[in-house]
Amino acid sequence: MTLLEAALRAVAALAAFLVLPLLVGQAEHKVMAHMQGRLGPMYAGGFHGWAQLVADGVKFLQKEDVTPAAADRWVFRLAPAVALVPYLLALALVPVHPGLAAVDVPGSVLLVLAATSVGALGTLMAGWSSANKYSLIGGLRAAAQLVSYELPLVLAVASVALAGGSLSLVALADAWSPWWLLWQLPGAVVFLVAGAAELQRPPFDMPVADAELVMGAWTEYTGLRFAFFLLAEYAGIVVVSLLFAVLWLGGWHGPVPDALGWLWTLLKGLAVALVVVWVRVAWPRLREDQLQRLAWLWLVPLALAQLVLTGTGVVLGW
User: Fold this and answer.
1) Distance CA 70, CA 125 (A)
2) 31: domain range?
3) Is residue 76 within 8 Å of 67, Cβ to Cβ?
4) What single string gives the DSSP state of each residue in 27-58?
5) Cβ-contact 126, 80 below 8 angstroms
6) Which of 60, 162, 221, 315 is deepest in the core (most CB within 10 A)?
7) What is the pLDDT of residues 109-151, one digit of tens each?
């Protein structure tokens, strides 16, 4: 790879990182507006409320940047970046087509999983450094949630890696076949549920439960720092959705062989993101005991069963 090509790939990854999360955020505004009868997001700016997201961005820019006097200032200010940057790295590793990834390495599956796990550390740092009991509880809830749901998520991905015989996302997408839609279906369900839980998306938003903890670990954040946490959430949705599209939906493979290429991957990823948004509106928040019970009594056994089924299939040559 030449220096110019590396620079172009980096710019493309950064542009995707800035555009795709905003697109998902705009879609969430519209889906929630339709499902909950919210009139405001449907009218701001004229045609179908296109300016609602712009208005939110201007609002964050105008808010004062406040750091609590008792906070650990360096950790408090670093936390939004720790929550956001790992998703930039993960997005750079997810291919939308062979050769169309900012960084293409043989073990890209492991690197993406490692990067997405680091993002939750930013929430824990924010909760601990804020000198606020509500924020601290939110950060501890986020840590407990990460520990619980990381295991089934990794097991689900391990099942696909075993079926494809590789740790490269490009190789796994090329090894995909329509038979996987049935063979790997339990793992797909586990991954989608565990991914939403790791992103602390409703109904798994216990770390930011507004009825109990104000805004959880983000309570003391204002202005752009608060916006960075929101951007990290939407970037996480993009990464999880694209990863799901590559591993379980064949990525750039469509009904017409590779006719649309990278566009197939984006369309599949956006469809998965819409499912994540729909679940937020349709399901009530779980209790903490229900959250843990779902992870350890349902998702982990299901992921292990999927791994055994996949191993059996590989041995028998399915």
Assistant:
1) 15
2) 3-316
3) yes
4) HHHHHHHHHHT--HHHHTTSGGGTTHHHHHHH
5) yes
6) 221
7) 999 999 888 878 888 888 888 888 888 888 888 888 888 899 9
Contact 12, 102 (CB under 8 A): yes
In terms of Cα–Cα distance, which of 243, 54, 45, 267 is closest to 160? 243
User: Mind spelling out the 3-state secondary structure of 92-117?
Assistant: HHCCCCCCCCCCCCCCHHHHHHHHHH
3-state secondary structure 109-166: HHHHHHHHHHHHHHHHHHHHHCCCHHHHHHHHHHHHHHHHHHHHHHHHHHHHHHHHCC
**Total domains present in the chain:** 1
Q: Which residues of 18-53 are buried (b: 16+ CB within 10 A; e: fewer)?
A: eebbbbbbbbbbbbbbeeeeeeebeebeeeebebbb
* Residue 24 contacts residue 237 (beta carbons within 8 Å): yes
**Over pLDDT 70: what percentage of the chain?**
94
* C-alpha span between 275 and 280 (Å, rounded): 9
Query: What are the tokens at 217?
Result: 């670990």
Q: Rounded CA gap, 67 and 286, in Å? A: 31
Nearest Cα neighbor of 225 from 130, 87, 140, 90 is 130
The pLDDT score that the predictor gives to residue 303 is 95
Tokens of 78: 């670093």
